[in-house]
Design brief:
The chain is α+β, with helices and mostly antiparallel strands. It has one domain. Helices cover about 30% and strands about 25% of the residues. Strands 1-2-4-3 form a four-stranded antiparallel sheet, with helices on one face. It is globular, with a radius of gyration of 16 Å. The C terminus is likely disordered.
């Protein structure tokens, strides 16, 4: 397991040598090692950008909270523009 803060955002890598980590292992690591108020996600980029260096490693990245005022305002503007 590796936990870092990269460019001001949390990043968790969790792996086993011979199997995928269980959901319980992933969630326990996330809640023990990253502050509770941080929103994290496992992301799958477009296929042409996908890189798998370790067969049994999963990555969790801090993401913006969609309920934050900044993101909500941006969505509202987009929706209003799409209706015009």
């Amino acid at each position: 397991m590796i936990v870092t803060k990269e460019f001001g955002r949390w990043h968790l890598s969790i792996a086993h040598t011979d199997r995928d980590p269980t959901w319980r292992e992933i969630s326990e690591a996330r809640y023990r090692l990253i502050p509770n108020n941080v929103l994290t996600a496992m992301l799958l980029p477009p296929l042409e950008e996908y890189v798998n260096v370790h067969k049994h490693c999963f990555q969790m990245h801090e993401i913006d909270d969609p309920d934050s005022s900044e993101v909500s305002t941006h969505r509202q503007v987009q929706t209003t523009e799409q209706l015009a």
